Structures are given as structure tokens and as C-alpha cells.
Amino acid sequence: MIDTVLLNKFLGSQMPAALEMLRKMVGINSFTSNREGINQLGRLTAECFAPLGFTARFVPSVNGEWGNHLVMTRTGRSSKSIALVSHLDTVFPPEEELANAFHWQVAGDRAFGPGTLDIKGGTVMMWLVLMALRAHAPKTFEEITWKLFWNSSEECLSPDFEDVCRPHLSGSTLALLVFEAENTAGSDHLMVAARKGRFTWKVTVTGRGAHAGGNLKQGANALIQLARTLQQIDVMTDFSKDLTFNVGKMWGGTVLNRVPHLAVAEGEFRAFSPAICEEAKARLLALSGPGEVRSQNDGYRCEVAVEITSESRPWPRNPGTEKLLTLWREAGARLGASVLGEQRGGLSDGNSFWDAVPTLDGLGPSGDNDHCSERSLDGSKLPEFVEISSFIPKAALNTVSILNLLA
Ligand SMILES: [Zn+2]
Question: How many Å lie between the centroid of ligand 1 and the Cα of residue 289?
């Protein structure tokens, strides 16, 4: 059994190098559509993991405007493998970082900067855990085949990352661990054990245009129909089922003296349960067809067309994930840390893999304000930061848990 005092001491000795690595990563803008920045960060990341014996492969994204995904492998003596997943991109355009003077800045226990929490801090956590495993469980480290995956475009739900990773996963892949940030509740570590699926939709209403002054009765107002349809969608939200619908945007009409002949809205819905997602999808699609808004003169009806524009399937609670969660909880008990599972509304790469390999998420450090770059003078608005003191205990927890999994 690993000596946890020595483990903590070792991790402490690695923190200066870990923070320097994080500082360099945060210094490279890697907004999803900054292709060059993503590729530069990919190369730096590959350099960071190479001394641990990993070889890198860069896989072009199907979207030519996005950077390369990064796959790093270290082949072990056995066929058993563990997959670790992070991403390269952030949500901050370079101009926004400049405008808000949002860059690497340490204040007390907080390291501010783009991606410190989501998810460059997670990448550094991966490095710490692998370093600890190599130093404190060298036999195990050498035995396992380690597969590291970085999505170049996670924040835009890249459709092809799953295809990049799947061929590397098999029945001998014991776990897929996602290094998104951890939430905490008091002193409890909250590991992510489920995430909602997300379905985006589009409603297109075609009506009949007419002169608003001379011939209003001839018109079938597409905007009015759209407003009614959207109200029907809005009430499909059912918190008792964790099912939420959001109308995200709408547009329609042209000039004020025309009855609008076209109106469009887009939105999304989310739920944890695959069955509830399917039922919601069916109800949504059933709104297609003749609308209730008609022209006054001859009853010409608006036509409603609903389509599902993207599907990110849910990651429900499942036995594979629960088994991993139990291991993390047991490791926590050994380390004097309370570990709980949580279900999150937001997506991660975990959604794509839980049904192929036991998956656990939230292995990253903790912090706050991810996806925010602004700071107000009174401190009521702070940008994204990672808590420096969260690295060592979480790295210890992840290390001990992985060893429990392999024991
Ligand atoms: Zn993320």
C-alpha cells in the first residue's frame, strides 16, 4: 500500500514545476477557433508529457478551422489500459483576454487566468498523478498502457473527438477519467457521476405575407404562430424529471408594413435519462404540422416545422461509473477526505464514452468562475481561477483511487 505521507510530500515537491507548466499553458491563447494557438498548446502539452515516456500523435479536426486533437500513449507490459481525458481549448478569444487584462496572475491561493480551471489545471493534474504513480508505484505504472486524449474543440462539442478516441478503447480499458474541474460542497469533493444530454432544436414557421395596411386579412403571421409554438415548448420543462427546455434565440419578419411570412427560433433541451430525452424529442417533433394561426380571409394556415439540429446523448447514473465512484470514496476515506457523486447539467467528453468504458469525471482541481473573464473594481465580479491548494489533495485522491482500481 502506498504511503500517503510520502505521496503528499512528493506532490508538494512537484508543485513548483506544475505551476510553471500551468503558467506556460495559460500564456498560450487557445480559444477554440484559434487554430494556431491550439496547435501551439498541443505541442507544449506533448513536450510536458514526453519525459514520462509518452509519444504524441496529432489528429486534425474534421473542422478545418479548429486545431489538432492530441493523443499520447505509453504502452505498458499488460494489455490493461486507462484513458485520461482533457481538452486544449478555452472559451476566451484573444481580444477578450487583452481587453479584460485577463492573464496569469497569482493572488494568495488563487491563480487567475484563461483555462486555469477549465481545463489547463486539469491537464496539469493529469501530469501530477502520472508523476506520482511513476514515483510511488513504478511497477503498476509500467504495467498499464496509458492513453491520454486532448480534445481540441470540446467547448464547441466537436463531433469527431469521439471517433478519434473510440478505436483506442476496448474491453481491457479499465476506466476513462475526465479531468474537468471539481465542485466542492463545504469540505466534500464532488466527483461527476452523470451529466445531462443536450439536444438542440430549430422551429421554422412559414406563414403568408401580406400588406399590413391594405390587406391584413390575407396575412398568416409567422411570428405570432412562432410565439404560440414557443410557449408550448416552454411549458415542456419539467423539473420533477430534470428536463429543461430553453428557447435560445428567435428572429423573423422583415419590415413593419408586412405581415411576416417567416419566423425561426432555436433552443435546446436537456435531461439525464435517455428515455426522458427520447420522449421529449418525440413531443417536440410532434409540434410540426399545420399551426393554429390562420389568415382571416380564407383560413390559410401557418406551417410549423421542428427539427433536431444536434444530439449529445446523456450520461445517466450507471454501474460502471458507480464502481469508480466507490473507489474514489474509499480512497477519500483513507486520505481523510469526503467524496460524493454529483450530477451536472453541463456536458463533457464523458457523455461520449460512459457506455463504452466505465467513466468518471471531475478529477481536476477546484476553483471558480470558469467561462468568466471579467473583473469589477468592487470585486463582485471575478474571472476564472484555480485554487492552488486544491492540487495536492486531489492529486493524492486520484492517485490512490487509480491504484485501488488496479489492485
Ligand atoms: Zn472543460
Answer: 39
Tell me the H-state helices in 317-390. Answer: 319-335, 350-353
Contact assessment for residue 145 and residue 153, using Cβ atoms and an 8 Å cutoff: no
List the one residue out of 112, 98, 133 whose CA is nearest residue 10: 133
Positions of CATH 3.40.630.10 in the chain: 4-195+314-406
Report how far ligand 1's centroid is from the alpha carbon of 169 (Å). 21
Residue 150: DSSP 8-state: E
Mean pLDDT, residues 243-250: 97
Class of the CATH-defined domain 4-195+314-406: alpha beta
Cα-to-centroid distance, 87 and ligand 1 (Å): 7
Say yes or no to pLDDT of 175 above 90. Answer: yes
β-pair type (81-87, 69-74): unpaired
Q: How far is the CA of 163 from the centre of ligand 1 (A)?
A: 19
Q: How far is the CA of 333 from the centre of ligand 1 (A)?
A: 27
Q: How confident is the model at residue 86 (pLDDT cuts 50, 70, 90)?
A: very high
What pLDDT digit, counting tens, does each position of 278-327 carry?
999 999 999 999 999 999 999 999 999 999 999 999 999 999 999 999 99
Place of cell 515537491: 13
Residue 348 Cα, ligand 1 centroid: separation in angstroms? 7
Q: Which ranges in the chain are annotated with CATH 3.30.70.360?
A: 197-312
Residue-wise pLDDT for 322-348, tens only, equals: 999 999 999 999 999 999 999 999 999
According to CATH, what is the number of the domain 197-312?
3.30.70.360
pLDDT value of position 2: 86
Q: What's the rounded mean pLDDT across residues 192-214?
A: 98
Q: The C-alpha cell of 220 is what?
A: 398568416
Measure Cα distances from 333 to 144, 171, 337 in Å: 25, 29, 6
CA of 351 from ligand 1 middle (Å) equals: 13
C-beta of residue 254 within 8 angstroms of C-beta of residue 221: no
The residue among 341, 405, 348, 392 whose CA lies nearest residue 121 is 392
SS3 for 402? helix
CA dist., res. 360 & res. 344, Å (int): 12
